[in-house]
Amino acid sequence: MKNRIYALKEAERIVPLLRSIGSEIQSRRRAADQIEGHLETANPKSHEERVATSNLEAQLATHLREIRAAEKELERLGCRFDEQHPDRILIPSPNGHWAFDGPLDDTRFYATPAGGVS
Q1: How many DSSP H helices and E strands does the chain contain?
Q2: Which residue segment(s) compose the domain that 48 sits in?
Q3: If residue 61 lies in a helix (H) or strand (E), which one and from where to where?
Q4: Quick check: is 117 in a domain?
Q5: Number of domains making up the chain
Q6: Residue of 36, 11, 25 lying closest to 73 (CA atoms)
Q7: What is the tens place of the pLDDT at every residue in 19-55?
Q8: Distance CA 28, CA 46 (A)
């Protein structure tokens, strides 16, 4: 993980990138959850059903791989998800962390204690 500290102005500059990464992760998580639901109930009997199930498994693998890649991109920026609030991104600041969360079209920043926000 990159040891980077962001002043508020610097954090504001990376917001579009964080918004994009967060949006991609949320979208891919929803898609992966939906595919996993289909796979749990799948009982392929015919060749066509087995092919369809294999395609779903491949799509799921792609979503999971891209989620990991997006999370690594956050790490390269020195940022991470808040363990207590998975949709909140913590941005290191001189006094702890800036927290980025809320709807992806409405950015809010606030300082957080070192262990995250409850």
Answers
A1: 2, 4
A2: 8-112
A3: helix 47-76
A4: no
A5: 1
A6: 25
A7: 899 889 999 999 999 999 999 999 999 999 999 999 9
A8: 29
